[in-house]
């Protein structure tokens, strides 16, 4: 189902265009890396129904990543394609936040990572949808319906794991302890994002953080889980300083194109 | 780890406004909300539905196959019960 449509590039200075390119690549990398992580569950889900749910979410994110990469290729204007951008950039060139590259761990880790991301993703898309960049607004308008489902799905799981059995409780608490430290980077603007916020292309992250806090607090309360306070937040992914995990992930993701350049099927 | 299975749920999907919910299959889920989410993921991936019902399978009471003769055969020779003597206008679909 290849859709053909014209990509509208906003009329901005070369400098802003470069910043926009970096931001769009960051969105693309984030969706792609999380899609890949979820795809690792395919065939290994705890039950068939959840295996399918995770594959569905993975495919939603992959579709979103493709839209961003296509737009990034257009913004860059150097003849690179969406595939070049996904398959032929190294880990230090990737701009996804640390959270999404974290390993799947057990099901509770996957759910906590997903929920922390979904809460951000959903509220970000709501803003981008109303933003000044036509292309981003169009992608966001399509993706926000998917993200609304993702956050509903992962929230329901947080509630069931938190307010479930002793074992599910123990596992979800361990996952929150391990992953909470990566949630802050999502709404901590990089230098590029700060510049774009001034130009109006990136929404106010403080306002988004407030919406996330309300959302997370509501779900955690229903899950009878305490919201962690005063955790030191890790960051680095958005500026290319990644954890060791991303290299391994990309080795698998990019293997075929690296080994057989230009291969198609 | 507990090996207790999640209960089974029967899934009914309405494919279009105005049509009935139809039984499409069954799935496992811990509770009703999750059964609806699972049904969404398992049975509506290809635009099959606009509405989902789930019913825990244990609440479905089925007729006994041994009763088939007593239940259904008496209707065989009562053709007058079928409204087949009416002409259905072309514009009426889904009869």
TrEMBL record, chain A:
GO biological process, one term: phenylacetate catabolic process
GO cellular component: cytosol
Gene3D superfamilies: 1.20.1260.10
One Pfam family recorded for the sequence: PaaA_PaaC
Top-level taxon in the UniProt lineage: Bacteria
UniProt cross-references to NCBIfam families, sorted A to Z: PA_CoA_Oxy3
Annotated PANTHER family: 1,2-PHENYLACETYL-COA EPOXIDASE, SUBUNIT C (PTHR30458:SF0), PHENYLACETIC ACID DEGRADATION PROTEIN PAA (PTHR30458)
Protein name as it appears in the record: Phenylacetate-CoA oxygenase subunit PaaC
Organism: Hymenobacter jeollabukensis
UniProtKB/TrEMBL annotation, chain B:
InterPro entries linked to this entry: PaaB (IPR009359), PaaB_sf (IPR038693)
Gene3D superfamilies: Phenylacetic acid degradation B
Keywords attached to this entry: Oxidoreductase
UniProt superkingdom: Bacteria
EC number(s) reported in the record: 1.14.13.149
Protein name as catalogued: 1,2-phenylacetyl-CoA epoxidase subunit B
A Pfam family per the record: PaaB
Keyword Oxidoreductase: yes
Species annotation: Hymenobacter jeollabukensis
Molecular function GO terms recorded: phenylacetyl-CoA 1,2-epoxidase activity
Enzyme type, top EC level: oxidoreductase
Keyword Oxidoreductase: yes
């Amino acid at each position: 189902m290849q859709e053909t449509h014209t990509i509208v590039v906003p009329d901005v200075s070369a400098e802003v265009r470069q910043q926009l390119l970096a931001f769009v690549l960051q969105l693309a990398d984030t969706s792609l890396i999380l899609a890949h992580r979820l795809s690792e569950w395919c065939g290994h889900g705890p039950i068939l129904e959840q295996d399918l749910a995770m594959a569905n979410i993975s495919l939603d994110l992959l579709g979103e990543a493709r839209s961003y990469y296509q737009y990034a290729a257009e913004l860059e204007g150097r003849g690179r394609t969406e595939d070049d951008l996904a398959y032929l950039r190294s880990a230090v060139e990737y701009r996804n936040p640390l959270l999404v590259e974290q390993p799947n761990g057990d099901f509770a880790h996957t759910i906590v990572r997903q929920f922390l991301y979904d809460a951000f993703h959903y509220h970000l898309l709501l803003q981008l949808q109303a933003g000044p960049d036509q292309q981003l607004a169009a992608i966001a308008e399509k993706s926000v319906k998917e993200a609304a489902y993702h956050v509903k799905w992962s929230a329901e799981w947080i509630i069931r794991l938190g307010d479930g059995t002793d074992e599910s409780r123990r596992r979800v608490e361990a996952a929150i302890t391990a992953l909470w430290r990566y949630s802050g980077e999502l709404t901590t603007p990089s230098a590029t994002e700060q510049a774009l916020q001034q130009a109006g292309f990136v929404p106010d992250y403080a306002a988004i953080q407030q919406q996330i806090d309300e959302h997370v607090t509501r779900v955690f309360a229903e899950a009878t889980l305490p919201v962690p306070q005063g955790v030191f937040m890790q960051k680095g992914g958005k500026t290319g300083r990644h954890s060791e995990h991303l290299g391994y992930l990309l080795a698998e993701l990019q293997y075929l194109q690296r080994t057989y350049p230009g291969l198609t099927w | 780890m507990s090996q207790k299975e999640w209960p089974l749920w029967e899934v009914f999907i309405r494919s279009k406004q105005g049509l009935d919910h139809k039984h499409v299959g069954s799935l496992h889920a811990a509770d009703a909300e999750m059964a609806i989410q699972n049904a969404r993921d398992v049975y509506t991936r290809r635009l099959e539905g606009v509405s989902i019902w789930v019913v825990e399978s244990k609440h479905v009471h089925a007729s006994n196959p041994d009763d088939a003769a007593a239940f259904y055969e008496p209707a065989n020779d009562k053709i007058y019960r079928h409204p087949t003597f009416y002409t259905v206008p072309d514009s009426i679909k889904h009869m």
